[in-house]
Please model this.
Amino acid sequence: MPTIHRVHNFAAGPAVLPLPVLEEIQRDLIALPGVGMSILEISHRSKAFESILAQAEADVRALGQIPPQYRVLFLQGGASMQFSMVPMNLLGPGATADYIDTGSWSEKAIKEARKVGAVQVAASTKADHYTRVPAQTELTLSPGAAYVHLTSNNTIEGTQYQRLPDVGETPLVNDTSSDMFSRPIDVARHAVIYAGAQKNMGPAGLTIVIVREDMLERSRGRQATLPTMLSYAVHAENQSLYNTPPVFSVYALGLVMKWLLNQGGLGAIAAINERKAAKLYAEIDRTAFYRGTAEKSSRSLMNVTFRLPTEELERLFVKESTAAGLDGLKGHRSVGGMRASIYNAFPEEGIDALVAFMRDFEQKRG
Ligand code: PMP
Model:
């Protein structure tokens, strides 16, 4: 067998997957043990897939310690589809939804919700170029709002809530696309949690939605006008098998869930993620050559964003780091600079390699 060379993949998503998961997929790709067909070939109505789906859900529930009054849905359309499904299912006529605006993805969620109903922006850090998430005291919540929507980790700007804001009795909807299952999550404080799988949980093509039963009631109330495929209630009643789900992505997510459980669960993963991020931020803070773009109290453990003294140096940094096997460090095109996405499966050796590269680069160019 030729030696396989893997670079360090700092991409924001789709992102690095655990090597043991890739190896298992490779081993079983031609024929699933006991099935004799590839996961790419089997019917979504087969016994084999039913059990893969049930096991994936059981493992999602175990990992997230999801209480029984929540349903776990395996959907498509990405987190972007949730920007529409959330208001279409939960925001009734005459009601208002509160949105906390902390970055490009919140903006997109707000834009879609406005097409459905009344939206109030409860807080925005746009004036600060989204370099932080708002403090509790900055929130202006509408009394009786249908829900409050927030983005727990801002993938592009590199900011993250360190704790959930208090929204009282109002249902909380959380876009956790870029930090789902990277640390313990208090599901009971939420009404809906959603996330695209392609950062911390698996390959692209699958979106996990965790929805409380009372929100399904709201969804049922809209059944007459809601397109069937956009109804939480329909997907819940059909165990995510109303239509053909992304069979391969569900299978791969199941393997990642097993890998996370084997790591010791979310507490253990959080400790590893904290240590990885701390190493990188320590290097950024060590010298004035690198400048972290997020305020320290809002720094993300998942997407570490930083700048260099000039755009010319930034271009060189991207070029030379790529050549050194550190891939995907260029920041999002809307903000520039660098971004190191270091999700669950990103190995600590990759952080050490980046820190070493940063020291070397500063010595040569600083
Ligand atoms: N929300 C956040 C926080 C994201 O990071 C992303 C994708 N990067 C999205 C939503 C959109 O996700 P998708 O591409 O799965 O629609």
Remarks:
- The chain has two domains: 24-263, 265-365.
- Residues 24-263 form a domain with the Aspartate Aminotransferase; domain 2 fold (CATH 3.40.640.10).
- Residues 13, 78-80, 105, 151, 155, 175, 177-178, 196 surround 4'-deoxy-4'-aminopyridoxal-5'-phosphate (CB under 6 Å).
